[in-house]
Structure formats: C-alpha cells, structure tokens
C-alpha cells in the first residue's frame, strides 16, 4: 500500500515537473490550441516544445494530427478570401505569410517524420501563389489610384497616394507607382498654420504659457510621420515675418477677421488658434501622521527535554513595538485650453473644443523607531523610501503642458487627417 502511494506521488511529481519546463509549457499550449481549433498555433507550440527537447515524443504525436488540419484550415481560408468580389488583399497575403512561416518552422526541425506530415497534407506551392496574389493586389490598387486621380480633388489625391503606396508594398517599383505616389502626395498636402496660443488665464506667473502649449503641439505633430506625410506646418518664423510685414497688432492677431487675412497671406488652408483660459497650481499639501504598532513575534529560542527524554527546540514569543511617522506630500496643477480650426477660404469654423487637464503629484514615505518587525508590510515598504520634496510650480506646469499638448495633438490630428 505504502509502495503504491510512493509510486503515485513520484508519477505526479514528474508530470508536474514537465509542466514547469520549457518543452512542457509549450506542449500544454499546443494542446490547448488544438482544443479551441487553432491548429496553426498548436503547430507552432509543438515546434517550440520539440526545439526545447528534441526527444519529447508527445508534440511529435500531436503534430500527426494538427499539422494536416492546419494546412486544410488555411487552404479553406485562403480560397474563401479569393472568391470574394471585394477582396481583402491584406488578409489574403497575411494568411499566405502565416502558412509559409508555419511550414518553414516545421522544416527547420529537420526531422525524418516531417516528410510524413507533408505528404499526408494537402500542401500547395504557397510561395508561387503568393507571388501571383501580390501581383494581382498591386494591379488592383494601381488601377484604383489612377481612377481616384481623375477626380482632381485634394482628398482624392490623398486616397490615390495611399493606394499607390499599397501598390509599392505588394510589388516594389511596380510600373510608375513611386513617381505617381510622390505626385499625388504633393497634391494632397494640407498646408496649416498653428498660431501661438493666447494666455487668457489672468496671470503671467508662468510666462508665455500659451506659446509653450502651442509649441509643444507643433513639436509632437512634427514627430508624427503618418500625419506629416500629408500635412505641412508653416513655421513660426514665417508667421512672425508676415505679422511684422503686415503690421498686425499683437491684439489684432486673435480677432477672427485678422486671422483669416493672415491665413490667406500665409497661403494656408487651415489655421489653428487657441487660448489658455485657466492655469493654476495648488500649494503643497504636506501631511504627517503618527502610528504605533505592536506585534507578537518570536524573540528567542530555548531548548527543553520532552517526556521521552529527547532535547527539542521551541520559540519564545514576545511583543515588539514600533512608532512610525508617515509623510505624504501632494500638489495639483490644472489647465484649460480651447482650440479652434478655421477654414481660411470659407472663413468657417471647422472645429472648436475646450480641454481640461490635471497633473497630480503624490509621494509618501515613512520613518520609524523601535522594532521593524512590528511594522505592517506597507510601513516597511514606505520606510525604505527616501524623503522627497514636491515639484516647483514651474516643474508642475511643464509636466501639465506636456500632458495637455499630447491630448490636444491627438484631437487636432483626428480633425486634420
């Protein structure tokens, strides 16, 4: 009975150990993928398991089943995609790339058994099929782009440029697609100007805060390659030069009519203006709290002789105490910014919105006297932290300006795209 019990424990131990090994974990994932019908993922996990332990038999047996099923599933998926009238070329090519990758992964195992898997599956020449599919996709997008060009509209030129770009993605240097992409992209570029935002918060404590926010937005836009592919931002130097040449007053710039005139002189399609209507930083909230802790712990050990005369060791329990001083500092900065996008030609407001944002700094640490063992786990963690001071007002505003400019950049980009 005891022998059988020990045998059972050993079996459970070794089975459990395999789950914690790289090959065991991968095989378990392969089994789970098979159960949910994801034969592609099951094959890849089997490959991982075999690579981790080449003589592990279980994934080899599982591949007998899942590899042919993965091939069959992808054949059906690809054929279904190809039969559709409105073909999703990205999905078709993705499917081909996946099945090619799966087959290559199995080939890299360099096993004699892989020929059995290949021969028992309905494998096709996917590399050749992919070549023809990419050619068909390139033709489709090239023809679509040339049709869009005929509309002779800025938005159509943008869509044409995107289609020519996809043509290049599928077949590089396809006909004159690169030259036509450059031509359409140039035609599609939207020229905009972002004015220095006004400070209407009623305080000059934080300097040119409006300009700081608008400059941060411009900097973030310039780093967005997708946005800048079809947008050109007039530099602040150009704007200042026109202002000086046309003798616009600093107060006149923000007036609606003046902005439209300025936009026309700059040759922009859209003009972005903004106002900082509120900016404030709270005083530092400095809180100190005292807590006393008491805990019963092992303070020593003693040896004693039991009834059978054997010497044994036992813990001596006792109370320990600690006094903790908890420090918590916090500070909050708030800002409200409104933005407007003006269409220069029609003098219409295309978009207007107001954004409120908050940046909050919080920090907590602790010191203590007495026995550390009496402290709670949280207090022990806090006691390991160094003392800190709250950020200055300028630092708070800098963090807040960065945060609100990110949000405004996202919103304005969505309207410009």
Order of helices and strands: HHHHHHHHHEEHHEHHEEEEHH
Radius of gyration: 35 Å
The number of helices is 15
The secondary structure category is alpha/beta
Large-scale geometry: flat
How much β-strand is present in the residues? 15-25%
Largest sheet: 7 strands, mixed
| Average pLDDT reading | 91
| Extended strand count | 7
Distance between the termini: 76 Å
Name the helicity range: 40-55%
* Poorly predicted regions: 250-254
Q: Can you characterise this structure?
A:
This protein has 417 residues and is of the alpha/beta class. The protein has 15 helices and seven strands. It has helices at residues 2-19, 22-35, 39-52, 57-83, 89-107, 114-119, 126-149, 154-170, 177-188, 209-222, 225-228, 236-246, 256-266, 377-383, 393-416, and strands at 190-194, 198-199, 231-233, 270-281, 285-305, 311-343, 348-370.
Q: Can you lay out the helices and strands and say which pair or pack?
A:
Layout: H1 2-19, H2 22-35, H3 39-52, H4 57-83, H5 89-107, H6 114-119, H7 126-149, H8 154-170, H9 177-188, E1 190-194, E2 198-199, H10 209-222, H11 225-228, E3 231-233, H12 236-246, H13 256-266, E4 270-281, E5 285-305, E6 311-343, E7 348-370, H14 377-383, H15 393-416
Parallel strand pairs: 1-3, 1-4, 2-4
Antiparallel strand pairs: 4-6, 5-6, 6-7
Helix pairs in contact: 2-3, 2-4, 3-4, 3-5, 4-5, 5-7, 7-8, 8-9, 10-15
Descriptive labels:
417 residues, alpha/beta, 15 helices
Task: Describe what is shown at a glance.
The protein is of the alpha/beta class and 417 residues long.
């Amino acid at each position: 009975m005891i022998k059988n019990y020990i045998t059972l424990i050993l079996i459970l131990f070794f089975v459990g150990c395999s789950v914690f090994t790289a090959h065991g974990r991968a095989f378990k994932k392969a089994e789970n993928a098979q159960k949910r019908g994801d034969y592609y993922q099951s094959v890849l996990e089997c490959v991982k398991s075999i690579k981790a332990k080449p003589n592990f038999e279980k994934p080899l047996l599982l591949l007998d089943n899942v590899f042919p099923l993965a091939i069959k599933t992808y054949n059906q998926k690809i054929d279904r995609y190809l039969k559709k009238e409105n073909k999703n070329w990205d999905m078709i090519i993705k499917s081909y790339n996946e099945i090619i990758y799966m087959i290559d992964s199995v080939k890299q195992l360099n096993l004699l058994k892989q020929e059995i898997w290949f021969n028992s599956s309905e494998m096709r020449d996917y590399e050749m099929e992919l070549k023809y599919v990419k050619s068909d996709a390139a033709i489709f997008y090239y023809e679509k782009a040339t049709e869009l060009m005929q509309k002779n509209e800025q938005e159509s030129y943008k869509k044409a440029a995107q289609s020519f770009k996809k043509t290049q993605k599928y077949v590089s240097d396809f006909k004159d697609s690169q030259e036509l992409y450059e031509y359409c992209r140039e035609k599609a570029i939207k020229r905009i100007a972002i004015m220095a935002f006004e400070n209407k918060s009623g305080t000059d404590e934080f300097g040119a805060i409006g300009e700081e926010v608008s400059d941060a937005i411009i900097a973030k836009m310039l780093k967005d390659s997708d946005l800048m592919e079809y947008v050109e931002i007039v530099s602040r130097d150009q704007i200042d030069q026109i202002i000086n040449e046309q003798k616009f007053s600093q107060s006149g710039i923000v007036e609606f009519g003046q902005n439209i005139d300025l936009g026309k002189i700059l040759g922009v399609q859209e003009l972005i203006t903004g106002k900082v209507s509120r900016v404030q930083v709270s005083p530092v909230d400095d809180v100190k709290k005292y807590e006393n802790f008491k805990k019963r712990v092992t303070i020593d050990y003693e040896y004693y002789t039991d009834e059978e005369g054997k010497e044994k060791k036992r813990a001596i329990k006792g109370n320990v105490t600690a006094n903790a001083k908890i420090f918590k500092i916090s500070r909050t900065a708030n800002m409200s910014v409104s933005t407007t996008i003006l269409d220069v030609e029609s003098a219409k407001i295309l978009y207007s919105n107001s954004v409120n944002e908050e940046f909050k700094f919080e920090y907590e640490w602790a010191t203590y006297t007495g026995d550390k063992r009496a402290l709670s786990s949280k207090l022990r963690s806090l006691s390991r932290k160094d003392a800190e001071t709250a950020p200055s007002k300028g630092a708070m505003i800098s963090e807040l300006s960065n945060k609100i400019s990110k949000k405004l950049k996202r919103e304005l980009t969505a309207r410009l795209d």
